Fold:
Amino acid sequence: MNIRFYNARILTMESRELIKGELWTSDDRISFIGTPSEEEISKESFDRQIDCEGNVLMPGFKNAHTHSAMTFSRSVADSYELNDWLYKAIFPMEAKLNDSYTYTFSKLAFAEYVKSGITADFDMYFHLDGIVKASNEVGMRTVFCSSANDFGGIDRLEDEYLKYNDAGELIGYKLGIHAEYTTSKENIAKAVEVAHKYRAPMFTHISETKSENLGCIERYGMTPVELFDKMGFYDYGGGGFHCVWFNENDRRIFSEKGLYAVFNAASNLKLASGVPDVSSFIGDGVSFGIGTDGAGSNNSLNMFKEMFLCATQSNILRDKSYSVDPFDVLKAACCTGAKIMGLDDCDILAKGKKADIIMIDMKDPSMQPESVFVDNLVFSGDTSVVKMTMINGKILYENGSFTTVDIDSLYEEARIKAGEIRA
Amino acid sequence: MNIRFYNARILTMESRELIKGELWTSDDRISFIGTPSEEEISKESFDRQIDCEGNVLMPGFKNAHTHSAMTFSRSVADSYELNDWLYKAIFPMEAKLNDSYTYTFSKLAFAEYVKSGITADFDMYFHLDGIVKASNEVGMRTVFCSSANDFGGIDRLEDEYLKYNDAGELIGYKLGIHAEYTTSKENIAKAVEVAHKYRAPMFTHISETKSENLGCIERYGMTPVELFDKMGFYDYGGGGFHCVWFNENDRRIFSEKGLYAVFNAASNLKLASGVPDVSSFIGDGVSFGIGTDGAGSNNSLNMFKEMFLCATQSNILRDKSYSVDPFDVLKAACCTGAKIMGLDDCDILAKGKKADIIMIDMKDPSMQPESVFVDNLVFSGDTSVVKMTMINGKILYENGSFTTVDIDSLYEEARIKAGEIRA
Structure:
């Protein structure tokens, strides 16, 4: 499938400037960006030509930490305290899950992703075969992150790593554990062994809450980052999710080792976990990505909300407006997220890169009158400005319609299955 | 025009429960809510019958503090420090404004309002005739709040009050001043005289920044709330915008006098002003509304963003999840905002109330699978869930289209005029 997008403005994300011109895709890749001559155009045979009418093409958002299948738990037990929420609401529901459930509930999340411009997700969950099926049907790019912990998964780590890194071009798998507080030192060490064998990066929930940090310090006399660093967890790179309670030394370790922080600011607000100080990470040279966390805790899967929070919350902590450059936030959302997941070809728009592209509707009132595009997108955009989403060269969402999802049937299926899980 | 909405679920906002049934409008009013008999239906003659397909009808959002015409300044000077932003960017642009400009720039904001479910705005600006024209053309319900200060407006206060409260059914006007820090005690006293003459409530920017509070304490030995209270400013009710730096006594005064706080959380984050602790206002019995502030400081005009912030930011200040009930936030956005503006018939959905109604698209993925509607709307919704907006019985926006605005012409007009203003 060769598609020509013309009359476009293009934000490649190599800079914050918009380029006027065309973007062509050939199967799963970008084959051209620029202003072609009439002769160059006439030599091509396009399957489809799309007039962008001046709208902006840019790389899709990478949801760098999520639990997609948790859509079943959205808005179900918002008023519960964290412990009750987990033990009385979430865990009993999760105990009922199987691949058929994770298939449906992930598919619902993927519909929300493509509608809101998310082209890849870094997904920590279980019953992964159901999620693979949903990814392949929708056309969603999913990289799993292991959620191994003392309740299971450590012994499956190597098998899953091999299986899901060989599960097709839309699927990947990264090693990791759920968190320090759910995983014994022995089990962390076992996981580290696998990472060392494959010289692979590792990821985990880390310093999400103050009590998590205090517990780790009580157990081991050091922060989670210091513990993982000491145990060789990060010898081949990787990173952590949430990173709310990092101290200066934690940030130094992340910076020196080239590790990635992933922020989940809306979930942290909703669960009263805290406010990640994005500006201090930037100041200390830590690269970061942005994720939505799962629908049970957030409750939306909305990268615009996350970007706004990442771009503004440090202002309060620092008593300074514009303490974070919105372009840094957009780079995190579009580019760094791809690097975190190992999707090196999905970061920017350039010839030869994967065609994971979204179109921003400049005719939404929130984008008018036009001024500084990047600032406007981060501070003023929301999901209604996403006009088209393409993953791996395939258009999955366009002008309000899904091309690979029968959305009404999906809602009905999710309604029935959510009823079973919530019963 | 008589319209029948059937197959609806209705959130009247009298409770948090959805009612299955029908809603009928007759001209500008709601004529029926409930489950009619076939006979009742057959007796009516409807101009239009709309199958809601199970989607939710609810009162529109009331944007209880904004400067609509400031769309010209959106994303123009985000990186400026507050003083430079005001004196080098905003004030020089505002000096060029006239009614023709405020007409176009307000009309653009009104398009954003109706697309995102806002059915009334409490608008503090100048060159009001242009804004009246835009309101009447679009069908937007606008209540002005005086922005009088030492640079002008105090002497016009009474004339404006009389003129704009007699300017048609969509327009209203409330007395007020811009802020303590821009208005001398003598001028505040003059404004209070007018309010006393008409026994009218008064409004003002208040305690938006820490330095504003400190300045007032230095000048008068008391907080702005205490000063205004002492000067009789609030003898006939009213309230204040922002209310970030209220102390306990300020909240006590607001509670005892039945004054309204209006929160503008996104603007406060972006300008590093602070975080309003919504839960402390609720705890102290202060009624509150929610506003977007202007597009220059926010930069969006998005009540969903504001609701999410109002519902979650106190969690961090109180170290407690669900510290604010999302239904309290939704009541503020839909109902209390109306009371603040004096629009007593625009608060809830009930027979005889004004037909200021929005339809929420339950087939947006962010609303699925269905669970607790109010929680889901506040925590997970964004502007893309607004399917229809009706003001004063007239549908202004439906399924992506505007009925009273030629949106492409408006964008072109705004582009040209913004270029002139920004030059």
Remarks:
- The domain at 2-59+354-402 of chain A is CATH 2.30.40.10 (Urease, subunit C; domain 1).
- Residues 72 and 418 of chain A are 5 Å apart (CA to CA).
